[in-house]
């Protein structure tokens, strides 16, 4: 990694087939596509099967996490992730809807974007508002990162000691704080 390169953590997921096939095939193809867009893949977790959220809303998901490095800005990285999603047929029609490919930017090193006040507003958003409201700007780290077993279980394989820049908790610590009943639903493929 060059001295200008930034470390990025991303979550990968999908529960619908793409033109290539099922979610596992699509995620593997997306991982191969990342380096072609200037995003170097440093590490990838195993793939996991997780229940659709909210429960009963569709087929189970395949989830994974990856550590990337790039000299691109966080906004440029997000744009490239969205371009890859679109290449694989992802349409952003419904928040938390079914999808063939989801590439979520979780963090850019220890950066808090766009600022601490805005991050805190999104991180403390009430559950009802989370379902309907979407930010118009990039919020990092991902405001729901610490709440989601389907993100933290794969992330713990590749970045267990990454510390959240606002809470100071590591991925291992965030994962340990989740109920066992949630973690037990994330099954290795």
From TrEMBL:
<dbReference type="GO" id="GO:0016301">
    <property type="term" value="F:kinase activity"/>
</dbReference>
<comment type="function">
    <text>Catalyzes the transfer of pyrophosphate from adenosine triphosphate (ATP) to 6-hydroxymethyl-7,8-dihydropterin, an enzymatic step in folate biosynthesis pathway.</text>
</comment>
<dbReference type="GO" id="GO:0046656">
    <property type="term" value="P:folic acid biosynthetic process"/>
</dbReference>
<keyword id="KW-0808">Transferase</keyword>
<dbReference type="GO" id="GO:0046654">
    <property type="term" value="P:tetrahydrofolate biosynthetic process"/>
</dbReference>
<protein>
    <recommendedName>
        <fullName>2-amino-4-hydroxy-6-hydroxymethyldihydropteridine pyrophosphokinase</fullName>
        <ecNumber>2.7.6.3</ecNumber>
    </recommendedName>
</protein>
<dbReference type="InterPro" id="IPR000550">
    <property type="entry name" value="Hppk"/>
</dbReference>
<comment type="similarity">
    <text>Belongs to the HPPK family.</text>
</comment>
<dbReference type="InterPro" id="IPR035907">
    <property type="entry name" value="Hppk_sf"/>
</dbReference>
<keyword id="KW-0547">Nucleotide-binding</keyword>
<keyword id="KW-0289">Folate biosynthesis</keyword>
<dbReference type="Pfam" id="PF01288">
    <property type="entry name" value="HPPK"/>
</dbReference>
<dbReference type="GO" id="GO:0003848">
    <property type="term" value="F:2-amino-4-hydroxy-6-hydroxymethyldihydropteridine diphosphokinase activity"/>
</dbReference>
<comment type="pathway">
    <text>Cofactor biosynthesis; tetrahydrofolate biosynthesis; 2-amino-4-hydroxy-6-hydroxymethyl-7,8-dihydropteridine diphosphate from 7,8-dihydroneopterin triphosphate: step 4/4.</text>
</comment>
<keyword id="KW-0418">Kinase</keyword>
<keyword id="KW-0067">ATP-binding</keyword>
<feature type="domain" description="7,8-dihydro-6-hydroxymethylpterin-pyrophosphokinase">
    <location>
        <begin position="10"/>
        <end position="160"/>
    </location>
</feature>
<dbReference type="GO" id="GO:0005524">
    <property type="term" value="F:ATP binding"/>
</dbReference>
